[in-house]
Amino acid sequence: MILVTEVIHRTALAMIGALIIIIVLIYTGLIPAHDSVDFVIGSIDFNTIGLLLGMMIIVGILGETGIFQYIGIKAAKLAKGNVWKLMLLLSVITAVGSAFLDNVTMVLLMVPVTISVARVLNINPISIILAEIFASNIGGAATLIGDPPNIMIASAANLDFMSFAYHMTPEVIITFLASLVILKLLFRKDLKQKPENVEKLMQIDERKEIKDPALLKKSVIVLLGVVIAFMFHGILDIEVSIIALAGSCNSFGNYKNSSRKSICSCRMDYLDVFRRIIHYCIRC
After folding, report:
1. What does pLDDT average to over the chain?
2. Measured distance CA(31)–CA(39) in Å, rounded
3. Which residues contact 108 (CB under 8 A, 6 or more apart)?
4. Which of 9, 16, 66, 249 is most buried by its number of CB atoms within 10 A?
5. How far apart are CA 222 and CA 164, in angstroms?
């Protein structure tokens, strides 16, 4: 309930919960007090932290190029005012993107584009946004890098990128198709909306949304390189966090904008939990 109402920030809440667990474990004798710091450090999955940080930087810089705005407008134009086609296209884009990028970041990048398109067409975007959220959660389950729990599960089960995708992708595709059928039934009234200003939408030049073509090319090359390296990380015997961080360093070097703080704004609260734990351990 506290997490839902956000009376306490989720970062602080997570820290409080972790502290309570450690206290309970010490007082019940499950771990000795003098071993508590080693227990905390050993419980941290640094591979997940590195993967999150690296992918956040790569996606953040890619988002600065305007590519997601371009994709959103292009999809809307392909739908030609058909709300169902628009939902379908944006859901597929979100699901596929979430499989290779952080799923929450993908939603944060796609939702503003969806709202902008809905305003032009004068339609209610709620059904499309909900479809994107479902698509993001489903698509993110397909690969090892799609969602933070995936890397934790893969690490515990000793699965590499291709093995994880091999076992999960068929189920994800079936679930995604089933969700589209359910969404079409649930939002059948919203999908009958008659968009306005379709001509205005068709006149929008999506190419103008690309703010930095050179950076876009470099960022896409880095992202493709990182994904290919993920596929062979088991053979190369390299952790996915190392690959993600190497790719982020490359992307960071290509990014010349002075406002670099905006890059990691999406999920820094997640990393802050781990930062505080590490800081606590060092002080101890």
Report:
1. 81
2. 8
3. 266
4. 66
5. 22
